[in-house]
Structures are given as C-alpha cells and as structure tokens.
C-alpha cells in the first residue's frame, strides 16, 4: 500500500499543479485497490475455509456414529464367545467406544471453535469495507474540491470572496483527507495483523485438537492390541473342547465324549467276537 499522504494534494497552500492532481488520484486508486483486495481475499477464503472445515466436522460426526454401531456389534458378539476371547473383545470394544467419545469432542472443538473463528470474519470484513469506504470518501472529496477551486480560478477570478471560500473548503478537505489517509493505513495494517494472528491461532488450535485425539487414540488402540496379543488361544480351545463334552443332568462325572468312549466300545466288540469263535 502507498505510504500515507505520499501522492496527496495536501499542503499549506493551494498552488497545486495538474500533475499533483494526477498523482493524488492514482495514489487514492492504489490504496482502494490494495485495501479491497486484502478484504475481499479474507472474506472469500475464510468463508470457504469455514464451509470446508464444517464439512470435515460433519463427516467426522458420521464416522463417530458408525463407530458407535461397530462398538455395539463387537460387544454383542463378545458375549457369546469363550472367556479369554470375550475379555479381549470387551477390552477392544471399551477402548474403541472411548475413541468415539474423543472423536465427538474433536468434532465439537472444530465446530464451536475453529469454524466459528472463520465465520465471524464476515462481520469484520463488512466493518473493514465500511472503514475503507469512509476514509476513501474523504480522499475523493479532496480531489473534488480541488477541481472546483481550479474552475473558480478560471471563471471567477474577479470574485475574491468566492475564490477565498473555495480555497478554504479545499484546505479543509485536504486536511480531512490527510487524516483519513493515515487512519486508513492504520486500520488496514491492524486488519492484516489481526488476520495473521487469527490464522495462526485457528490452525494451532486445530492441530492441537488433532494431535490430542490421535495421541489418546494411540494409547487406547495400544491397550486393545495388547489385550488381543496376550490372549492364550489354547485356554479358549480347551474351554471349547470341554463344552463339546455332553454331561447328563444330575451327574457329576465327566461328560460324555465320543472320543473317550471309543476304546470301551472296541473292547466290547472284540470280546463278543472272541466268544462267538469259541
């Protein structure tokens, strides 16, 4: 942006040349162009970032809901398994459910803090545009008063009072333009500073939120992984093998097993064959 008052008509007297007017007009146009570009860029891109980040949060919310359904399915299945596998699956389900709770917090953080921070810039951009319009109006008025003064110098040179009044009006407009130009530069500089601070804070908050989720998720998944790794397969197989043995009601003797009864049956058959041969 051009430096404050760099190409202005602002000076203590009214002996201003046409080149000075041209320079002032170009300086005003440059200030307007840079200010509008900066504000429009923030207004456009912050709105887009808010929209896309909100979509990201919505999809995470749907993933969280799907995770809840998967957790319930694992819990239901675990209740029908042998004790070792049941415990490992319940541990996994518990860890997975906690991760979904963390994901819910992650979604809330994004929606309530990150998206909201982007969204409020609509209001800030509207205010910044109003400030630019107000301050540049004073710069435009300076040029207008200068042109009016130049016309009077040509057409009303014989009317000193009218010419003096026009000179006074121009001087006031010039002073006001100088003040507005300084304010505009200060406001736009503060707008840029605030934008940079806000961007840094929004993305740092977002990254912190993501890191926290993944760090806690890693801890929980590690616990679930260790639970499955420490599962003794043979204990569950032995439990299953025992469940395959039938035991009559009211009997405390070991259950019936086809494998254990085969030697007795074979012995009976061999004894019958021997008697018949005799």
Automatic annotation (TrEMBL):
Gene3D superfamilies, alphabetized: Arfaptin homology (AH) domain/BAR domain (1.20.1270.60)
Cellular compartments per GO CC: ciliary basal body; ciliary transition zone
Single GO BP term: cilium assembly
Pfam families: FAM92 (PF06730)
Name this polypeptide is given: Uncharacterized protein
């Amino acid at each position: 942006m051009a430096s404050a008052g760099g190409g202005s008509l602002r000076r203590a007297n009214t002996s201003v040349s046409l080149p000075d007017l041209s320079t002032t007009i170009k300086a005003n146009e440059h200030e307007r162009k840079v200010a509008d570009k900066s504000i429009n860029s923030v207004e456009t891109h912050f709105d887009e970032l808010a929209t896309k980040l909100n979509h990201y949060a919505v999809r995470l919310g749907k993933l969280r809901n799907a995770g809840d359904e998967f957790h319930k399915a694992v819990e239901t299945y675990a209740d029908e398994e042998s004790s070792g596998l049941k415990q490992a699956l319940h541990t996994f389900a518990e860890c997975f459910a906690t991760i979904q709770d963390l994901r819910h917090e992650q979604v809330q953080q994004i929606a309530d803090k990150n998206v909201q921070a982007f969204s409020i810039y609509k209001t800030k951009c509207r205010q910044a545009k109003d400030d630019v319009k107000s301050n540049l109006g004073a710069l435009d008025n300076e040029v207008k008063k200068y042109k009016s003064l130049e016309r009077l110098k040509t057409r009303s040179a014989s009317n000193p009072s009218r010419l003096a009044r026009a000179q006074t009006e121009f001087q006031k407009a010039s002073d006001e333009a100088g003040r507005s130009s300084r304010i505009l530069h200060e406001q736009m500089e503060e707008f840029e500073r605030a934008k940079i601070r806000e961007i840094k804070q929004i993305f740092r908050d977002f990254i912190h939120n993501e890191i926290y989720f993944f760090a806690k998720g890693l801890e929980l998944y590690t616990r679930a992984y260790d639970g499955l790794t420490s599962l003794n397969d043979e204990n569950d197989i032995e439990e299953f093998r025992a469940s395959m043995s039938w035991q009559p009601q009211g009997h405390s003797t070991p259950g019936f097993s086809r494998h254990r009864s085969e030697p007795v049956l074979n012995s009976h058959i061999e004894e019958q064959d021997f008697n018949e041969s005799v």
